[in-house]
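Page 42, continued from yesterday. The earlier attempt failed because a stray header line got pasted into the input along with the sequence. Redoing it now with the clean sequence only.
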Amino acid sequence: MKELAKRQAPGVTPPFNAKQQYVSTTGAHAFKAPGPDDQRGPCPGLNAMANHGYMPHNGVGSINDFITGTQAAFGMGPDLASFLAVYGAVFDGDLKSYSIGGPVASLSSLGGLLGEPYGLSGSHNKYEGDVSPIRGDLYQYGNDYLSQISQFTALYELGQQNGNSVDLNVLTNYRVTRFQESVSKNPYFFNAPFSGVVASPAAWSFIYRFMANKSAEHPEGLLTGDVLKSFYAMSGDYPNFKYSPGQEKFPDNWYKRNPVDAYTIPYLSVDAQAMALPHPQFFAVGGNTGQVNTFTGINPANLTGGVYTDGNILQGNNLICYGLELSLQEAPDFLSGLYSDVNSAQDALGTAINEATGALGCPKLNAINKGQFKQDFAKYPGYSKLKTGGTY
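This time it went through. C-alpha cells are written below.
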C-alpha cells in the first residue's frame, strides 16, 4: 500500500510496461457495433468496454463484470471499481447488475423492485448529473446521455491550444466554463451530493486519468485530439465533427494505466480537491431556484451539524467524504421510489460507502438535519421536480 501511495504522489512518474498495459482491440476485443437491443448510455468508457467485449456486449453487467472490466480495460483500482459497481447496481439496477443505458427487465426480486430498473441513463441526480463535460444538462436538452457536439468541440479546441493535449489543467478550466453555463442557461441546474460532489469530479478527471494513452515517453498519459474523438464516437475534422451515438471505441495501439498506478478512491480524492481548491463552486451542494443565475448553495455546517464546514471541507479527504456520507443519508428518499423494501439496497449501499469512508479516514456523519435537508432541497426544482425514472 505504501508503494501504491508513493506512485500516486503528485509529481511521481509511474512505470510503463507495454505488455502489462496494452489493451487489445483485435480478436475477442475487436470493435462490434451495438445492435437495436443493446444498451449504451452516458458513459463513453463503459460504452467502449461493451463495444470491445470488456463487459457484456448487451450493455448489462453484473457487479463483477464492472469490477473486472474496468480493471482490465482502464486500470481502475479495485476499491473504486467495486464501489462504483455496487453503487450502480443499487441505484440503476437490481442490486446485482445494471444497464449502462436505459431500462431493462430484471431477473432479481431483491428489495421488491418497483418496475424495471432505470439504468444509468435514468440516474439523474443519483449517479449522473449536470455540468457534464460532453453531455448536456437533462432539463436543458431533454436527455442526459447524448453527447453535445458543441461541448466536444470546445474541449477539443482547448486541447489543441495546449499542444494537442487534454490534461487536467485543460479539463479544470473547461469545467469552470461548463459550471457557469449550467448556472446561466439551466433554471433546473442542481449540484447533488453524490452526482455533483463525487461523480462530477470523477467524470472530469476520468477523461485524462483513463483515456490518456500511456507510453514510455508519456507514462502518465497523453490525451490527443484523435484519442478523444475515438472515445467519444466523433469523426470528421475540426470543427465539423459528426457524432455517432453508441459507437465509442478504444483506439488501436492504446495502453492503460500501470497496475502499480491503479486509479483508486484516494487518488480520486486528491484530484477532486485539487480541482476544487481554486474553484469552490465545484463542491457547493445546491442549484438554481427555477430561474437562471439564481444558484444558491447549502451551508454544509447547517446540514451536517458542524461535522463539515466551509472551513474544513477541503482539508484531507473531507470533500469526497462529504459527498459520500451525505449521499448515504439522503439515499432512503431516492430508494423508496425504486424498491418496496429499501433495507437490502440500503445495506449494500451502506457497506460500500462505509468501506470507502473508512479507508479515507472520514469524520463520522451519523445523521443530517432532516428538516434542514427537506427545507433546503425543496427550493430546487432540479431536485424536487425530478421523477423517479430520471426525467422532468
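Notes: The beta strands are 22-23, 60-62, 97-99, 190-191, 234-235, 242-243, 254-255, 286-287, 296-297.
Reminder to self: strip header lines before submitting.
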